[in-house]
Amino acid sequence: MSSRDEQEQAFQADTLDEQLARLTRNTSSSADARLVRDLRTISQESTRSGERVWQRLAERLAQQETTPTVPRPVIPNSTRHIERSIYMQTQTPESNTLPSRQDRPPSRSGRVFALVAAVLVTVALVGSLAAVFQLARQKPSGQTGGAHQQSPTPGQIVYSSPRENGAVGSLAWSADGQRVAAVGSQTQIWDATTGQHQVTVHFARAGEDVYGSPAWSPTSDLLAIPTDYEVAIVDGQTGHVVKSYTESSTTPTASIVPSTSTGQVYLSSLFPAGYGTLPNFPALAWSPNGTQVVFAVFFGPTSGSEVQIWNPQTGQPALTLAVESNFHISALSWSPDGEYIAANMQNTATGDARVVVWSVATHQVVFQKSGNPSLNEGAHWQPGSHNLAFITPLPAPAKNAVKPVLGLEIWNVTTRQLVKSIAGLNASAWAWSPDGQKIAYASSYSDGSASSAAVVAVLDVNSGQTVYPYKVSSGTIGALAWSPNGNYIVTSDNMLQDTTPTLQQSYVVQVWVA
Length: 514
Hints:
The chain is of the alpha+beta class. The chain has helices at 3-8, 16-26, 30-64, 77-89, 108-142, 147-150; strands spanning 157-160, 164-165, 168-173, 179-184, 187-191, 199-200, 215-216, 222-226, 231-235, 241-245, 284-286, 293-298, 305-311, 316-323, 327-334, 340-347, 353-359, 365-371, 380-381, 387-394, 405-412, 417-423, 429-432, 438-446, 452-460, 466-471, 476-482, 488-499, 502-513. It is globular and about 125 Å long.
């Protein structure tokens, strides 16, 4: 075989070591000889490295009980560059044309380098898959609480406040679902489901009483609170009063806007015995767009009341409505779209209770319903509608019935049509779910013993059936509110404790899964 033929046969994979030895003997210069010796050393080191890598890979695969098939590696461009250099060193001057790529066999060193790279990639992939499988196995056992947290059950308590002396008469949940305000013997605000960042509101005067339910602004940063002295606008994070509105004790002189049916305007309230400080502020509501607050001012049994729509930014009233004498406001609410204002009122001389609704645009009464004092328990707008719901006496179920049965009626204010009537619902406090499909209400019952207990029930409005009853400890439910996301209900459990020779009232506020 000629020297040229031997060179063209160079670097076959199975005779690489033999050919390198022959090349060493035939090199014409010391530089060529050093190059070949270096390449031979690289080849041997690569072979030993490759064997070590394969050994480690085999051990890893045995531990993970996985035997992946390593594909035959493709020679990288860098390896082909080394192969080209070796070949050029062995060519004679008269022949400098490289063989075609498909005719050139891969060098052993290039195959080893490519094989090492493929092995490392395979090890990384196998390790990643093993880690994923391990995490998948650990996830169920690593969760705290197990299935209890995965599927919270109705009635599961997520927060319970310390028991304190006094009572809570109203609760309000901020629109963003982050804060709860509790109003009663004292006014406190805290993070809804943890009780953290609690602040106590301090009003302008010592002993200032809150008569009505507070209302959060739609942006959830401010809380409006009606008291016997002022309408206080409070920072929901700090509890500081940032703005307030008071009224002189003179008799109102604003003209009466006539009702469409009686020639009178009825927007009024029931007050505590003695009516407290005069004038005072028994009820308020924040407009849905956050630009206005509507509140009631009570001047006394004979002087009457008036309703004001107020700009909380400027502190100026935008609209004033006078109210018929002897009627007093217990609650105000704004329809979800801001088109209507509803009021609960009662005549303290006759006991007649009414629900009245005004159009904000025309200032005219567009709906009213008479009943008994149960109407003072509040009228609530069904979310996303013009439907207004309230508890009222229903027609007697039988001719020999001794007294009318209380129940819930839902009326469409725009059409003045009864939408639904649910008998037997007599609640001390109640609220719509945010989707408008359910109602949570509180009532007391006796188990035959000397003590009584309170139950909060969730009612499906469409079917009229109770879907969940939640029993609380002995006492009464002073207030409740549904969280804006619909996941929780907050209630106040007011109890009387025998601290002979007197009875001591105390309360606990609880947040539980709806």
